[in-house]
Amino acid sequence: MSLTTTLTLSNETEIPAIGLGVYKVEAGDEVYQAVRSAIEIGYRHIDTASLYGNEEGVGKAIKDSGIPREKIFVTTKVWNDEQGFEETKTAINRSLDRLGMDYVDLYLIHWPVPGKFTDTWKALEAIYQEGKAKAIGVSNFLPHHLKELFKEAKTKPMVNQIELHPQLQQEETRTFCQEHGILVEAWAPLGKASYFDHPVLQELAKKHEKTPAQIIVRWQYQSGIITIPKSIHKHRQEENVNIFDFELSDEDMAKMAGMNEEKRIGKHPDEFDYGM
């Protein structure tokens, strides 16, 4: 088990179980150095988005790393004001230009914009057929969004990236996705480090001689959740993924499950300001 350990999407595409998220990492040198150091450590999965404004630095860092493009899994996302069929077809080309790539490994709808996300999905299906994305999926979709999408979709999403951490475990959405062959990916997987002092995390960190962050990443890994912890610091990038030399017991996993409070850091998808 290592950073190259993968999970298999419904179309047989392999996705590294752990990656680097670059939300709010500044464009230019900061994101370039963060991605370069992550790749040097062994990360082979980088998650960016049109919204982040740093696709260019991500692409340059991957190119300069010397690692063959096909060895690195790259995700980007179409933002809310780019949604709609034709708009999304244009948006992927902008992202590919900024990344300096012919394709991305995973292209996601960033949020379920009411009245638009089904047309956006049809564009993703076309992008997938054209080979501009090796896999397609959604982000921040709840079961009712997915049910609406299924009515018109020819291809089901392969991934649903949602806010997911010990205090927001989203069991209903995870169960629905599992029933439909959709892998779940966690954003804000460490809960923005806002409750590392929680007694359960402290207890398990002491027991396994690990950090709270490592306990969380291990819990997600054992739960079959793709996770993309963010850090711009090399030592923290190393620490976050040093999780392959221990295992959480069933009792440990039960304690982690008991941390759930359905407590969000970000917006609920049904309460997001879509500018409608």
Counting DSSP H or I runs of 4 or more residues, the number of helices is 10
* Main sheet attributes: strand count, strand direction, barrel closure: 8 strands, parallel
The total of beta strands comes to 10
Output the helix-strand order. Answer: EEEHEHEHEHEHEHEHHEHH
Q: How far is the N terminus from the C terminus?
A: 46 Å
Indicate the overall shape: globular
Which CATH architecture would you pick?
Alpha-Beta Barrel
Strand order of the largest sheet: 3-4-5-6-7-8-9-10
Strand content: 5-15%
What class, by secondary structure content? alpha/beta
Q: Compute the CA-based radius of gyration.
A: 18 Å
pLDDT < 50 stretches: none
Number of domains: 1
CATH topology, by name, is TIM Barrel
- The named CATH superfamily: NADP-dependent oxidoreductase domain
- Helix content range: 25-40%
